[in-house]
Amino acid sequence: xxxxxxxxxxxxxxxxxxxxxxxxxxxxxxxxxxxxxxxxxxxxxxxxxxxxxxxxxxxxxxxxxxxxxxxxxxxxxxxxxxxxxxxxxxxxxxxxxxxxxxxxxxxxxxxxxxxxxxxxxxxxxxxxxxxxxxxxxxxxxxxxxxxxxxxxxxxxxxxxxxxxxxxxxxxxxxxxxxxxxxxxxxxxxxxxxxxxxxxxxxxxxxxxxxxxxxxxxxxxxxxxxxxxxxxxxxxxxxxxxxxxxxxxxxxxxxxxxxxxxxxxxxxxxxxxxxxxxxxxxxxxxxxxxxxxxxxxxxxxxxxxxxxxxxxxxxxxxxxxxxxxxxxxxxxxxxxxxxxxxxxxxxxxxxxxxxxxxxxxxxxxxxxxxxxxxxxxxxxxxxxxxxxxxxxxxxxxxxxxxxxxxxxxxxxxxxxxxxxxxxxxxxxxxxxxxxxxxxxxxxxxxxxxxxxxxxxxxxxxxxxxx
Length: 465
Description:
The chain has 465 residues and is an alpha/beta fold. It folds into three domains: 2-291, 7-stranded beta/alpha barrel, CATH 3.20.110; 307-399; 400-443. The protein has helices at residues 33-61, 74-83, 85-96, 117-135, 151-159, 171-174, 198-207, 220-228, 256-268, 278-284, 307-310, 313-323, 326-329, 335-344, 348-351, 373-394, 399-451; strands at 2-10, 68-72, 100-102, 141-142, 164-168, 182-185, 192-196, 236-242, 246-247, 250-251, 273-275, 290-291.
């Protein structure tokens, strides 16, 4: 019997406000709070909450036969805490059913796996600690940012203690092979690899409401039928989509929520299909062969590589300048700086700088707050410049930076003393002014008394004899 492995990605970046050149060194708050709250609330109300409600209802209805997995970034969980705590509560209810698995990923949904091993490990650990704190699960299966995977990354992930990874079933990697099997890492066969079936996944994410698609409209019965008709020897259909597919990428009016409601019944009633979480898949199946991925792949665009984030000079410059700070960040203990450092690494900032304008251009416009990639680059570099100034003050790069930092501390100390002295001086002046005013009032009152005309004596009446 084939099994369907449903996985949903949930991530929202902290978007930056318009940060101008003249803000550098003068304003250390980078975030567009209004945009962040508005976008998160819209996603929660239109997508996350209604989809969670439907999935919970279906899990309870089918008593453990319907199962799903979620990959939530630490950044989106931070935003849920700020703007929509009820979303966390709804995921906790799903976790309590025992039919939902939470995947591991990088805390900031970052590209750190391409930059530094120790920071990669610390971000994954921070993410998994948060998942365990909120939902009582310690993830066993790893989902790297944007499904980025290579033989080396897989080997590292296994040595970090994970049993499996999910990545893209890219044609140029699999060739004639089907993604509908369990594979293993070419360097470290102990790591099992689930390959995303991009056809079934993209049918939901991109084609569902496309009236020009020859399979429109897509019904749950038709979708389940396609799966049933796959070659009988194929074992697992791994579907991985953005959770905003439900209600935003595909609006409610398209019928996507009705599709989600009917999908469990359509799949289970065939008797030839079941649902499994990623952990169940790797426990129940054996890898059919190793999958060789010498260069990093992802699920993005036609190329299925890293060009969506590191494909032009703008992106490479921003990426290199960011991770030039990594050695000093190891010595930084300031909580605010560490949080800003996490958010600077979020992959979306580099995605906004993408200059693809052809087959994938429309995809890169979704939720992009910038008019052009160049605006995105300039704004990000302005923020990064200010962050570097703050870092230099805390963890100087060189003896010269240390001297500058010491002088800055001295100037700040002198400035505070001057401000204190000025405050005291104003207070003394105010008191002196009040005293002088009192004296002036007394003097004026005395003068008034001096110039007052003497009272005329009242003539006495003659006494009558």
